[in-house]
Write a structure and sequence with these properties.
Blueprint: E1 2-4, E2 8-13, H1 15-28, H2 38-48, E3 50-54, E4 60-65, E5 72-74, E6 77-85, E7 95-103, E8 110-116, E9 120-126, E10 159-161, E11 190-195, E12 209-212, E13 215-219, E14 229-232, E15 237-242, H3 243-246, E16 248-252, E17 255-260, E18 262-266, E19 269-272, E20 275-277, E21 287-293, E22 299-301, E23 312-317, E24 324-327, E25 331-337, E26 343-348, E27 354-368, E28 375-382, E29 386-387
Parallel strand pairs: 8-28, 9-11
Antiparallel strand pairs: 1-2, 2-4, 3-4, 5-6, 6-7, 7-10, 8-9, 11-15, 12-13, 12-18, 14-15, 16-17, 17-20, 18-19, 19-22, 21-25, 23-27, 24-25, 26-27, 27-28, 27-29
């Protein structure tokens, strides 16, 4: 069974077949000798856009970016032909050929814009939106529950074929039937968040639910019962709630940040609405810290046994030439000198008295080996208003 996501397709490989796949990959990448061993092979796979992760059940998950080597665009589909050598043989003639297939999407940069104030967090997530959904767009508000969620028309399932020349599935189909499956598979203060979404329950699919700190807390229709206010329009969903009720403090590499641990989930699919804000302060320190979650943006598989760790390839801070970056398994932490970045503006305190407020905006460009598109991460942070 091929699963299709925002920027990659995935296939579960039984443990009995993984060596045959490794042998074919070593050949197609023109590797020889010790370079075909799993330790060396994995580094070459990443350079080509392939990833082979062990599963907790002993099987493997083979992932191929839509931009990976040998992935073709044909009749509105991404297609990748793979071969698995039979056990104990070395000839390609004694191998099984398969075609992984997912509907075509146009890759675009992902932009996350996080606005932090002493009372609010306002993350805005933007990613690709296929033209096929433009005519389906409508409007929504907090008083119209059940409005269709619009966004990426990516199916949960793709097609795995055994050397056939069957016609490709129609463009925009939400489920591609699997003709043959030779490999055995198994299943498995206030906040404001905006995110482009796939089709929702109005077309018969599983409804989207809010997941906070890993627990399902409410449907979109009932979000107000727990203090969340949901606004849905043609392109985004916005979630608002007092900041202290949503954000939780987290220690990362001897630094502190506040994390919004929010997801939108439906069936086996999930969209991350996670974002971070610096701690609330009255004055800036000598450095500013930006905590960026290391996770895929867009549609991903929910509850996967595989703990994927993204590999940072490049990082640029648009407002500063000097910065340092450190990584944990879950975050990229960027330290930027405050000089030249922090500005000051006039403000009014709670009682209306005039004051001064420090603030900054930084734009960071990141590229991860496992993601087809770069990420632009923008942070605006406003400090407390201080009387003159």
């Amino acid at each position: 069974m091929v699963e299709c996501f925002s920027d990659y397709m995935a296939l579960r490989i039984p443990r009995s077949h993984v060596q045959g796949l490794r042998q074919w990959l070593g050949r197609v990448l023109h590797l020889s000798g010790t370079w075909r061993t799993p330790h060396h092979l994995d580094s070459f796979l990443a350079k080509c856009g392939y990833f082979l992760h062990p599963d907790s059940d002993g099987d493997f998950i083979f992932q191929a970016l839509y931009s990976a080597c040998f992935v073709q665009k044909k009749r509105a589909n991404y297609r990748l032909e793979i071969r698995i050598l039979q056990k104990g043989v070395k000839s390609l003639e004694q191998s099984d050929g398969y075609v992984m297939k997912c509907p075509l999407t146009e890759p675009q940069p992902n932009h996350v814009h996080v606005r932090c104030t002493p009372m609010f967090i306002q993350p805005s997530f933007q990613s690709r939106r296929p033209p096929s959904l433009e005519k389906a767009a409508g409007t929504g508000n907090r008083d119209s529950p059940g409005h269709p969620l619009l966004g990426e028309a990516l199916p949960g399932l793709g097609a795995l074929e055994l050397g056939t020349q069957e016609p490709d599935p129609p463009v925009g189909s939400s489920l591609l039937l699997i003709k043959q499956e030779p490999l055995s598979t198994s299943e498995e203060e206030s906040g404001n968040v905006s995110r482009l979404l796939p089709l929702g329950s109005s077309n018969g699919q599983t409804p989207w639910l809010l997941s906070l700190r890993g627990e399902l807390v409410a449907s979109l229709e009932d979000a107000s019962l727990i203090g969340l206010y949901v606004d849905i329009n043609a392109t985004a969903i916005t979630i608002q709630s007092p900041r202290p009720e949503l954000l939780q403090r987290q220690e990362v590499l001897n630094t502190s940040t506040e994390v919004l641990p929010l997801w939108l989930v439906s069936g086996y699919s999930a969209y991350s609405l996670q974002a971070t804000c610096p701690l609330v302060l009255s004055q800036p320190k000598w450095e500013i810290l930006v905590h960026i979650p290391k996770e895929r943006l867009g549609l991903v598989k929910r509850g996967s046994h595989v703990k994927e760790i993204l590999s940072l390839q490049s990082l640029q801070v648009h407002q500063a030439s000097t910065f340092t970056a450190t990584e944990s398994p879950d975050f990229v932490v960027v330290s930027i000198p405050a000089t030249g970045v922090v500005q000051v503006q006039q403000c009014q305190e709670g009682q209306g008295a005039p004051g001064m407020q420090a603030f900054y905006r930084v734009d960071l460009s990141l590229e991860f080996a496992e993601m087809a598109s770069p990420v632009l991460w923008t942070v605006e942070n406003f400090f407390q208003c201080v009387s003159k």
